[in-house]
Amino acid sequence: MKKTISRIFIVFLVGLFSLACSNDDDNESKNELKPEETIIGTWELRNREPDGIDICEFSSYFSFLDNKTINGEVYAGDEPSECASINISGSWEFEGGSKFMIQIDGKPDVVEVEINFPNNNTMEMSSQKEGYSEFYARKK
C-alpha cells in the first residue's frame, strides 16, 4: 500500500509539472493565469494511465497553497471497506515551463514532476521516471 501511495503522489507531482507550460508564452492573454497561480487550490485524483485507479483512490486529494506548501490525503485499497488513508504535507516550487519540484515531509528526496493544465479545472501530472500520468479535477 505504501508503494501505491508513493506512486499516486509521484504521478500527481509529475502531472502538476506538465500542466505548467504554455504553448505560446508570447500570446498569453492578460487574464490567463500562470502555472504557479493555476496550481493553487485543491485537486482530486480522477484517473491514472496506464493502470487506472482503485475505488478508494477516488478520495485522494492534494491542496497546493499560495505559501508554497502542499497538504493532502492519499487513499489506497481495493474495496470501499478496506480504504486506508495517509495524510501528506510538504512544499512545492515552480521551476519554470511545466516543471515543479515537490518535497514531502519525512521523505529524503525532492520529486520532479511535469504538470499541465488543459484548462483551469483539470490538471495532468506525469513522471517520466515512474512511467505514468495522473489526472486531477479542481475541487469546487
From TrEMBL:
Query: What keywords are annotated for this sequence in UniProt?
Result: Signal
Q: Which residues form the signal peptide?
A: 1-22
A Pfam cross-reference name: Lipocalin_4
Show where the Lipocalin-like domain sits.
Answer: 39-124
List the PROSITE patterns.
PROKAR_LIPOPROTEIN (PS51257)
Name of the protein in question: Lipocalin-like domain-containing protein
Query: Which source organism does the UniProt entry give?
Result: Mesonia hippocampi
